[in-house]
Amino acid sequence: MKPRIIFFDIDGTLVPLKEGIRPRTVEALQKLRQNGIRLCIATGRTPMEMPKFEGVTFDALLTYNGSYCFTPERDIFKNLIPKEDIVTLRRNAAALGRPLALATDSRLVANGTEPDLEEYFAIGGVKLVVADDFDEVAQGEVFQVLMGGREEEYPAILNDVTHAKIAAWWDRAVDIIPANGGKGVAVEKVLEFYGIDKADSMAFGDGNNDIEMFGAVGTGVAMANASDRLKAVSADTCRDVKEDGVYWYCLEHGLL
Fold first, then answer.
1. Count of helices and strands (H, E) across the chain
2. Radius of gyration over alpha carbons of the chain, in Å?
3. What is the pLDDT of residues 179-196, one digit of tens each?
4. CATH 3.30.1240.10 residue window(s) in the chain
5. Per-residue CA distances from 113 to 67, 101, 117, 133 (Å)
6. Element at 60 (helix H, strand E)
7. Which of 203, 206, 208 is nearest to 240 (CA)?
């Protein structure tokens, strides 16, 4: 089955962690586009962190784990964390002795720094910025909260938080998104926007935050380096991201 649209996670899927973009990945994206398949990014990254794939234009970007989705021309979907939950998350982070970062449509700023959060930012090639106007930013539109945190800290992070949840793909930090959000909801919004059936869609991913996305598409393909939880719900698997998994899967299935 040739899909009409494909959604791609970035880190660990299109780009190896802490490494550069691989030429065969770019070639695969270019050829998929030439073959009339719509291409969409679905990532926990901010709009400001998008890597450049030479000669590739994406039809839509699903950023902040789907909380902010847009085309090059217009917004498709916006989903915000309520201000009362931002207040609670700041309190919980302080109790854990951890700073946090707030993601808006144009800024990503923190109220402090620590090794886990710094390395989390570095994965996306972004410098951690501690902002003097953090309190002001917290009063505006916030799509996602980022902070260092291990799985055993999750209950404390979300203590008394009512309309937000954790979407984690790395074991030392978390993305916190609206409770009614996630990549799956965003994919559904994009499919509706383009008038494409679920059966005609595909997605590639590697992390637990891709599980809901796989449930929203016709075919979910897990990288060889994917989490066991994602592989358990995938329709298929491909080679490791460091072995050009997306390229070889698309070639072997007649998509290129």
1. 9, 13
2. 18
3. 988 899 999 999 999 999
4. 83-178
5. 24, 9, 7, 15
6. strand 60-63
7. 206
Q: Is 252 exposed, middle or buried (0-12, 13-18, 19+ CB in 10 A)?
A: exposed
| Residue ranges matching CATH 3.40.50.1000 in the chain | 5-78+181-252
CATH match for 83-178 among 3.30.1240.10, 3.40.50.720, 3.60.15.10, 3.30.450.20? 3.30.1240.10
In angstroms, rounded to a whole number, what is the distance separating the alpha carbons of residues 233 and 88? 33
Q: Which two tokens stand for residue 17?
A: 């962690």
Give Cβ neighbours of residue 255 (< 8 Å, ≥ 6 apart): 2, 3, 31, 32, 35, 37
CATH class of 5-78+181-252: alpha beta
Place of tokens 């998008």: 50
Question: Residue 8 and residue 155: Cα distance in Å, rounded?
Answer: 30
CA nearest to 124, candidates 41, 23, 187 = 41
Spatial separation of the C-alpha atoms in residues 72 and 5, rounded to whole Å: 16
For residue 129, give the amino acid letter.
V
What are 37-70's pLDDT values in tens digits? Answer: 999 999 988 888 899 999 999 999 999 889 899 9
pTM of the model: 0.82
CA distance 91 to 240: 39
Residue found by looking up tokens 């559904």 in the block = 188
For residue 191, give every residue at least 6 positions away whose Cβ sits within 8 Å of its Cβ, in sequence order, or none.
5, 197, 198, 201, 216
Distance in angstroms (rounded) separating the CA atoms of residues 111 and 218: 41
